[in-house]
Amino acid sequence: SAVISQKPSRDICQRGTSLTIQCQVDSQVTMMFWYRQQPGQSLTLIATANQGSEATYESGFVIDKFPISRPNLTFSTLTVSNMSPEDSSIYLCSVEVLNSGNTIYFGEGSWLTVV
Amino acid sequence: AQSVAQPEDQVNVAEGNPLTVKCTYSVSGNPYLFWYVQYPNRGLQFLLKYITGDNLVKGSYGFEAEFNKSQTSFHLKKPSALVSDSALYFCAVRDMEYGNKLVFGAGTILRVKS
Question: pLDDT per residue over A18-50, tens digit each?
């Protein structure tokens, strides 16, 4: 498995502001993803974070709203821009680790509340 | 497109009884199937997976799952439930044809009563 550290773990944000979530992994990572889990809902993929290039976004998610960086193999950031109450969610970093047999592991998530 | 369905929003079981959480899948190609558990106020924890091989796969915390190709099912099971098993369980399929992402079911709340 892997140790996946996300910061912040929780935050309360004012509407209209932006927040950047960091994800750091302690193992060699082959793939890195960002998911959103809205209250009482399942997980939805926001984007695949690509090292050194633009992320690949899923339908319904755009770079202006959710800019993502991945400067190296083990670190990525997700920014939630111009937040509204509808952005209140858990944001989860997930990774496939080298030699993990196609298993994807998740961090503890960043629990954001927008007021 | 790959998808999974969890037909039960909630499963209730008495402690010590066997439990089953159901999952069916729809995939093109070979299925890569996973179960995850989410405890309150926590992230997702990997329980087990089926990629190939034996249809009965064993995972963490005494859980196992049975892959059934003819019924396109991947039900999660445990012979004897614990109160501490109470959590939200997600079935997922990995879409190896498009982006290698995980596609999740809606989730099933498991409540184990003492």
Answer: 999 999 999 999 999 999 999 999 999 999 999
Instruction: Provide DSSP, chain B.
Output: --EEE---SEEEEETTS-EEE--EEE-SSS--EEEEEE-TT--EEEEEEESSS-SEEE-GGG-EEEEETTTTEEEEEESS--GGG-EEEEEEEEETTTTTEEEE---EEEEEE-
Residues of B in contact with A107 (CB under 8 A): 43
Query: Residue A69 contacts by C-beta under 8 Å, 6 or more apart in sequence?
Result: A49, A76, A77
B90 CB neighbours in chain A (<8 A) are 42-43
B103 contacts on A by Cβ (under 8 Å): 45
Q: What is the pLDDT of residues A65-95, one digit of tens each?
A: 999 999 999 999 999 999 999 999 999 999 9
Distance in angstroms (rounded) separating the CA atoms of residues B8 and B15: 19
Parallel, antiparallel or unpaired: strands A110-114 and A89-97: antiparallel
Q: Which residue of B has its CA nearest to A93?
A: B43
The distance of A81 to chain B (nearest Cα, Å) reads 23
Between the CA of residue A38 and those of A26, A88, B15, B58, what are the distances in Å? 27, 7, 30, 30
Residue contact A94–B102, C-beta within 8 A: yes
Helix (H, G, I), strand (E, B) or coil at A25: strand
* Contact indicator for A96, A73 with CB cutoff of 8 Å: no
